[in-house]
Amino acid sequence: METVDIYFTWAVRGHHACFLIGVILLVLLGGAEAGVESVDNSDLAHLDVGLTDFLRYKADRARCGSDEPCTLPPEGKCWGYEKNCAETKQLSMPECTGSPAPHASTMEGKIQKFHEQAGFAYAKQFSSSMETVCESQSDGDSSLTCSKDLAHCRATNLYIDFREADFKKRPEERLATARLRPDFIGKKMLGGKCRLTKSKLGQPKYSSHLQSWWAELHNFHVMDEQTNTKNKHCDVVVQTPVIFMKMDAKVNLYHHFCDFVNLYVSQHINGSFSRDVQIIDWDTSDYPNNDLFEQTWDAFTKRKVKRLTDYGGKRVCFNEVLFPLLPRMVFGLFYNMPVVPDCSGSSLMESFSHFLLNRLAVQRWHTKTELEARRVRVTFLSRGTRYRNVLNEEEILGTLKTVGRFSVRRVRYDRDMTFREQIESSHNSDILIGMHGAGLTHMLFLPEWAGVFEIYNTEDPNCYKDLAAIRGLYYQTWEKKKLLFPQDGGHHKVDSAKPKFTDYRFDAKEFLRLVEKLADRVQQKRDKLRPKAKQPPPPDAIKTEL
Hints:
The protein has 13 helices and 21 strands. It has helices at 16-20, 61-64, 107-118, 121-127, 175-179, 214-217, 253-270, 347-359, 370-374, 393-401, 419-427, 463-471, 508-529; strands at residues 2-4, 95-96, 131-135, 143-146, 153-161, 190-192, 195-196, 221-222, 236-238, 242-245, 278-281, 306-307, 315-323, 343-344, 376-381, 406-411, 431-434, 451-454, 474-477, 484-486, 504-506. The chain is globular. A hairpin with a 7-residue loop joins strand 3 and strand 4. The strands form 4 sheets. Strands 1, 3, 4, 5, 6, 7, 8, 9, 10, 11, 12 and 13 form a 12-stranded mixed sheet that branches. A 5-stranded parallel sheet has the order 16-15-17-18-19, sandwiched between helices.
C-alpha cells in the first residue's frame, strides 16, 4: 500500500487573526488548520490602479497577523455573500441603466438581480444552502456536505474503489460521453463511515454530468470501518486536499474558462485559496489529455494535474475532497447565462481576473514616451481557422494606421505562443478586436478601462456581449449589415446556412468609424484609471506591430 504525505488540511487558520478584529469572510465549511497560502501579491506595481481591493493587502497585514498575503476584503468591506453584508459595505455593485421592467419593479431590484446572476451574491445561493448529507459520528469518520442540487460538495475520508473502473472506449461511444460517463460510479464504489440521510441524495431537476455531482454521489455507500488511514480498505491514502474537476471542452477557451471561473467561486465558498492542493481531472476515459490552457492551473495548484486513470485498479481513500461548481449549470457562470440587460460590472469577475493575472505574474508593459502612452493599444485577433476569417485584414487594419491615436498589433493565438504570453498580450491592450469565437474570452484579461469589438457576432448577439457586461467592459459590434460581405452562403456539411460557417470582408471606412467610436469611450476611462508608473518593456517575441 502507498501513502501520500500530508501537506495541509483544508480551511484557514491563517485567517483567524482577521476574524478576531471582526472582519467576517464566509462561514468556513470545515475545520480551520494551518498552511494556507493566499494570493501572492508582494509586488503589485504591474497591475492597474483600478485593482480589486482584496489584492491591496499591504496596508492590512496587521489584520491578518503575519507577513503573508491576506485574501480578506479591506477592513470594513465584505465580498457580498457573507451574512449581514450590507450593500454599502460590498466591494462594488453593478451599474444599470434603462427600465427595470420586466426583470424587477425598481432599479435597485434590477441591480440586485444582476448581482445575484453574476456578482459575488451568486456564491451566496450555494454557501447558504450547504447541508449535511452524511454526518460523522466520531473522530476519523467520513462526512459529506452539499449545496442545493448537489452542485457543490465537500467530503472527508472519502473512499473510492477504482478496481473495477472501466476507462476503455465503448463501441459507438462519443468522446464527450466517454470522458464524463454518468454510470461510472456503481454501487459500493464510493462511500465512507457516517450516518447517511439518503433522501438528500435524490435526483435534482438538473442532474446532467456538467450540472450536478449527483451521478457520482447518489450511490454513496455507508461503510462499517473508517477510511482515514492505511487499513484493509485503502491501497492508497491521499492526505493532500483534492479537488475533483469535471470539465467542459479543454480545447476551447470560452468553455474551459467556465471551469476556472467556477473553481474560483468554489474557493470562496470553501474559504481557501491555497495552491497546496491536488487537482484531479474527473475524466472517465483513457483518452489522451489535450488541455490547451493548462498553464492556467498554476494559479490554483503547485502540483501537476492528475487523472482518474492514475488511480486505476486501486482502492483510494481521500482525506479531504472538494466537488466544485460545474460549468454548465442552469443559470450558472457563464455558459449561456441569461443576464439582466443594460447592466455592467461584476466584482466577482473583476476579482477573478486580478487573481489570475497576479498568480500567473502577468506583467504590464512599459511605454517609452508620452506619445506612446497616449495611443490606444489595439490588439487584433487573426483567426487562421476554417471559418469566420476576415478576408481583408490588411485593408481594415491599414485604416487604423492612418490615424495617429492607435498602436496596432495583429496576433494569432496558437501553439507558437504560450498561453501565459497570450494572456500578457491581451492584458496590455486597450481594445481587443476579433470575430465571434472563443478567442474573445481574452477579454477576461483586459484592463478595467478596455473595450471589446466583436466585429460580427454572426447572429449570436448575446454570448460575448453578456461576457463583456459581466466583466465591466465597453462592447461594440458591427452596426450596418449592408457593409459586411460574406464570402458565400456557408460551407459547413451540416449547418451551412448559418452565418458562422463562412468568411467575411468588411467595409474599411465603417470599420475605422466603429473602432474610433469605441476608442473615445475607452480613452476617457483609461485616463482616469491607468497607472503612471513605468513598467518593464514588452518581450520581443510579442512585438508584432503592423
